[in-house]
Amino acid sequence: MSASARRLGEETDRAYAIQVAAGTKSAAVYGVLGWGAVTIAHYTWPFFRHQTLAFKSFLVSTSMVFGLAIGADSALLSHEAERRRSENAIRRQAALELSRRGMVPTETAIAKWRADKAQHSSANRDEMG
């Protein structure tokens, strides 16, 4: 498995973990809000009091699913935006260093620069550790 494929797999796993954590938290918050709204409606609105327990449970679970979807999606969008910013910064640094060396910053040259940079940083970690 190549380094870029391994890095992509790790990034996918990290994005999934972020979605699960944010979705779970958001589902719990929206579930509590839905349960509170149903409870308030039950005690303040006679028409709502006569509705079935299944319908009230449906409203609470719908609010939880809504929270799950919104929370997970917004966390993933934030994560992707941050990854794009960091990737653009790395590419900008690579292009600048390659241009200083008199090389054209093509995709191949940037990939080679990135591999060299990773190799140097792992060599430095091995010397210190």
From TrEMBL:
Protein name per UniProt: HIG1 domain-containing protein
Q: Which keywords, in A-to-Z order, does the entry hold?
A: Membrane, Transmembrane, Transmembrane helix
Q: Which residues cross the membrane?
A: 27-45, 57-77
